[in-house]
Fold this protein.
Amino acid sequence: MNKEQIGYLAWAGGIIAVALAATFARKLGYIDGDAVTRLVIGLNGLMIAWIGNRIPKTFVPNARAQQANRVAGWSLVLSGLVYTGFFVFAPIQIAVIGGCGAIVAGMLVTFGYCLSLRKRKNAA
């Protein structure tokens, strides 16, 4: 098992542990169901931002692929943080639309940039 896989497993275990602890706290009456939902979904957004931070650090032999990795990394970090912000501060209905919209926007930015790199390569 390599170092990167350990990070992903740590995030998965951490999210599961927080979800279980929050569920237990809810059963004891310390927090409500809305807080449990916001906590777990907010952690998902932070995990997306963490993955986005890792992407540019991966080795790829091609300069254009490195450019694509940087854009993908930035778009995932920003969209993950916006997603988390929506689920921490906005009402749930707005958070679902805004948070998912942020993730989709990050994916579209990455996809559009990759297509523009491809178009520039074909034009050259």
About this structure: Residues 22 and 28 are 10 Å apart (CA to CA). The first helix runs from residue 3 to 27. The helical segments are 3-27, 33-54, 63-89, 92-123. The chain has four helices and no strands.
